Amino acid sequence: MPSANDSNTTTATATTLYPHHTDFTGRDPPPTDGYSWDQIKDAIKSNSLHALRRTDKGQYEYEQWQDKIDRKTYKNIGEYIAFVILQWPDLQDPADTVEHVSHTIESPQSKEERYRTIEPRLTLRQNHYPFPVQQSIQYFVLWSTRDMSLLSERTRLDTYLQLQFIGNQDPLAGPIVEKGLSPEVFPPVEGKKKQWMWFVNPIELRSVATVHHIHVFVRDVHPSEPSEVFFERP
C-alpha cells in the first residue's frame, strides 16, 4: 500500500529531474490525467487556487522558457508576452491614450466615461504553460489592458467570451457567427455547446504580474446546461 513517504519520494525525484525555483511544499502534485472540471471549480469556490499547480516538469519548462527572454530588451515577462506573443503596440489601455485623454473644455470626459465607451485591448490565447487539465477541457488566458474582472467591465467581458465560444446567435445583432473568434477554440461537438468558467489569481500566485489576465476554462456540455458556470476574482 502506498504511503506518504512514497509520495514525498516521488515529488523529490521529480524535482531532482526537473529543478525549478518554485516552492511547491504542501501542494500536492496534479492528478496524472490533469485536474477535472469539478476540481478546478471546487478550488475556485473554496478560494484554494494555490492547490492548482503545474507539474515539476511543467514548471521547469516554464522557467527555462523565461530564462531565454532577452531582459535587456524586455524589462519583464509581461512586456515580452505583450509585444512579442500578443503583438500589442504598447501596454497602455486605448482609453488612456493621448488622443482620448486630451479633450476640450466644452466636452470634458472623465476616466470612468472613457472606460465605459472605449473598448480595451483583449487577446484570448491558449495557455502554453498551464497546470494540467483533463483532455475534455481547453485552458485559455484572456490578456487585457484593463482589469476585466471588475464589476464595471463584467458585461463587456461576458459579451466577449460569448463571442469567442459560441459566436453571435442573435440575428438582430447582425450576421450570425457560427464559430468563435479565436482560432484556438475547438468547435463544439455535434449536439453540445460550450460552457466556461474563469478566475483571477491572487497576486501571490501570479507568474505574470504586469499584464492583466484571467484564466478561462471551456468544455462541451449538453445544451440544457448553462453556458457560463461562475467566476471568481480576489
Gist of the model:
This protein is of the alpha+beta class.
3D architecture notes:
This protein has 234 residues and is of the alpha+beta class. It has one domain. Helices cover 29% and strands 15% of the residues. It contains seven helices and five strands, in the order ααααααββαβββ. The protein has helices at residues 4-17, 37-45, 56-67, 77-85, 98-101, 111-117, 154-165; strands at 122-126, 138-144, 193-199, 212-221, 228-232. A five-stranded mixed sheet has the order 1-2-4-3-5, with helices on one face. The longest helix is centred in the first third of the chain and has 14 residues, at 4-17. The mean pLDDT is 85.
- Strand percentage: 5-15%
Could you give the order of the helices and strands?
HHHHHHEEHEEE
Unreliable runs, pLDDT <50, ≥5 residues? none
**β-strand number:** 5
Write down the overall geometry. globular
What can be said about the biggest beta sheet?
5 strands, mixed
Rg, nearest Å: 20 Å
Strand order of the largest sheet: 1-2-4-3-5
Mean pLDDT: 85
What is the SS-derived class? Answer: alpha+beta
Tally the helices: what do you get?
7
Q: How many separate domains make up the residues? A: 1
Q: State the distance separating the first and last CA atoms.
A: 40 Å
How much helical structure, as a percent, in the residues?
A: 25-40%
